[in-house]
Design a protein that fits this description.
By secondary structure, the chain is α/β, with parallel strands linked by helices. It has two helices and seven strands; from the N terminus they run ββββαβαββ. The longest helix is centred in the middle third of the chain and has 19 residues. The chain is globular, with a radius of gyration of 15 Å.
């Protein structure tokens, strides 16, 4: 595994779910493009934000696995949620699939996505030795 250092400077809020920053030394950069909650058939999974978030994280994990990586290699996540959705369902789903792998993260609410039925999109940056 590359040298990944979680950066949580004194004086900044700390949270076990994320790091304020991450330094990655060595390895290859893996960029995971935005993943919606779509199944292998390309259709958005039913069940609302929670189900779509679970599927989107599974899709991110599949791309990481293709690169020989997993959650421990991720240095940055960006999660886009459709505005007006209950983010609690998204956070709960993230914990279910992602597990205790804190990293630098940005969570945004957006007006919508290219797919009108999508409620979430997640992208990731990872460093693989």
């Amino acid at each position: 595994m590359p040298g990944i250092t979680h950066l949580n400077p004194a004086g900044l809020h700390t949270n076990p779910a994320f790091s304020q920053g991450v330094r990655a030394d060595g390895g290859s950069l893996v960029v995971v493009g935005g993943q919606n909650g779509t199944g292998g058939d390309g259709a958005v999974v039913p069940g609302g934000l929670g189900a779509q978030t679970v599927q989107a994280f599974r899709n991110v994990l599949a791309v990481l696995a293709e690169a020989g990586a997993d959650q421990g290699h991720v240095v940055k996540l960006t999660v886009h949620l459709k505005a007006g959705e209950d983010v609690t369902a998204g956070y709960r789903a993230a914990g279910e699939v992602w597990g205790p792998h804190p990293t630098a993260i940005t969570v945004l609410q957006v007006a919508g996505f290219a797919r009108p039925d999508a409620l979430v999109e997640i992208d990731a940056l990872a460093v693989v030795p």
